[in-house]
Every structure is written in C-alpha cells, then in structure tokens.
Amino acid sequence: MPSNPEQPWQTRDRFLALHSRWMTLIGEHLQDNQGQILDYWRIEKADSVIVLPIQGDRILLPSPSYRPGIGQVTLDFPGGRVSAGQTPEQGAIATLKRELGFEAASILQLMPLNTEGWAINSSFSNQKLYGFVAHLDNSANPSADVTGSIDSVSLTDVQTLLQTLTCLQCRAVLLEWWLNF
User: Fold this and answer.
1) What gap in Å lies between CA 123 and CA 53, rounded to an integer?
2) Residue 116 to residue 176: CA distance in whole angstroms
C-alpha cells in the first residue's frame, strides 16, 4: 500500500495502561499511514513549568538537585509539574514558592514565554512545557537556598549559563527569553 501522509494513523487497540501518580504508560497497536500495524509505547504526563527568576539585574539559581534519570546533580531553573486543576501560571507561582521560597506577593510580573506549551517529546509523550519569566521584588529575600546568581545579564553571561545548564528544557526557556527580551 503506498504511503499517504494525509491519512491519519489509527489506534487499533490498547494492550496496556499502567497508571501511577506520575504518569500513565500506554501500549497500543497503531496502524500507520502505510497500513502497517505497529506496537507503540507512549506516556501521558502532567504538563510542566520552568521559571526564569529575575531579581533586579540578577538571574537567581536554586541549589542543584539530584536527577535520577541521569544519575547526577544538576543546576536548573525552578520547575515542576502543573497539578490537576492548576493553570500553568498557578504552577509557576507554586514552583517559585516551593523552590525559592518567594511568596506570590513578591512576584512583580509573571510573563509567559509561550501560551500553548511546547511539546517536550511529541513522539513519546503528551506532556507540554510552559516557560515563564518572573520579575521579583528587590526587597524580597528567598527563604530557600539560592546557589548563586548571574549578576548582570549580558550575552557572555547567558552563554556561560548555557554551558552550565544540562537540562534542555531550562536551556530552551533561557534562549526563548534571551531572544525576545
């Protein structure tokens, strides 16, 4: 059967749905646009937020966190999942409180970098990433550990930070902000 890119793929059956509080693993048989039946695995997960916290002329960086997926401690921007019933904006505010200890009243401006969410891994997951820039009150102090900060936001500082960040999602948020600020 010749390939027809306009013919959508079809789900023939679902042979597994394994649910946890973090994700659902789904196994399906899909028929591709050439008529072939394929075993396919995917996950459904809650959307994520990453927040670029700026206080004055400084980008704040929380303490490094252990990342089980790569077995390393990494430096990342504050981030997390959007809980059920939360908007991405509410998720960003909750993330700033949880990871840096900033109360909502300390956030002078919360700017979304995207309103639709970016697909994180569209071939494997439905999860989207929402990026935010939070301008924080200069008089507010974080109650959580802040590893450091980038004290001036120049091209050299952004390039240095890009070399430090291993998280592709954090790098995407930083670049999107840098290209549009």
Assistant:
1) 30
2) 14
22 closest CA partner among 102, 80, 94: 80
Give how far Cα 163 sits from Cα of 33, 54, 77, 83, 111, Å.
41, 19, 14, 31, 25
Residues 95-138 pLDDT 10s: 999 999 999 999 999 999 999 999 999 999 999 999 999 999 99
Token duo for residue 104:
């909502």
Residues forming a β-bridge with 67: 72
With contact defined as beta carbons under 8 Å apart, do 28 and 15 qualify? yes
Count of CB atoms situated within 10 Å of the CB of 95: 25
Fold of 48-180: Nucleoside Triphosphate Pyrophosphohydrolase (3.90.79)
Global pTM reads: 0.87
Q: Where are the domains of the chain?
A: 10-45, 48-180
